[in-house]
Model the fold of this input.
Amino acid sequence: MREERIEEQELRLQERLRKLEELETEVKQKEKKLKEKEKAKKQVLLRLAPSLWNELAKWAEEDYRSINGQIEFLLAEAVRKRKNGHKV
Done:
């Protein structure tokens, strides 16, 4: 009787483990797709005043980023703050 209960519990645990492994595989596939989307960057032509360009260049150098990286960082920050309900 006790052995039967142990076997039933073991079977339930094995089934739960199988479901967890399936979920883990699904999550990994979704993460991979998201990373692939992030790699596909869009190009944008941006015209800036020379004074703004110079300020961005100084700021980028202080943050050890390229100017392009700095602009992307600032835009991402602004979008994140907007999504969280903060005024930019």
Q: What stands out?
A: The chain has a mean pLDDT of 91. The two ends are 67 Å apart (CA to CA).
